[in-house]
Amino acid sequence: MALTHSTHPDFTLPASMRLKSAKSIDLLIAKGKRHWVSPFGAIALEVPFDEEAPLKVAFAAPKRKLKKAVDRNRMKRLMRESFRLNKSELLTSCLEQKKGLLLLFVSQCNTTVDYSKTQEKIKLLLQRLNIEHAQTAG
Prior knowledge:
The protein is an alpha+beta fold. The chain is about 45% helix and about 20% strand. It has helices at about 20-30, 70-85, 90-95, 115-135, and strands at about 35, 40-45, 55-60, 100-105. It has a four-stranded mixed β-sheet with strand order 1-2-4-3, sandwiched between helices. It is globular. The N and C termini lie far apart (about 40 Å). Mean pLDDT is about 90; it is low at about 1-5.
């Protein structure tokens, strides 16, 4: 049996899903709703639906918290990987409700966090975002 798109979750993070526009990021920071699961934060903002990319995401690790570029890059990489593996429920919700969503994940830890803890916290953030996103639909 050949695997089709509908029989297994999509674990990719294509460039079309990346939030790169400075205008969009500024709008997200200014008007987005903040969620917090220590040591990670997420800022979410509903936007008009775009079938190509209903969910756009960015990741940040502030220099103020993580001084070394190696550590900042590692945290962003861990957050990206955790998001990539756990995004399916939120993405499905966006597609079903025909609503777009901009997301920014921010690491607020002073040292790098191990992968299992990162994945656990990002998964919890995604569940909270999904619940809130579902409530605004009804």
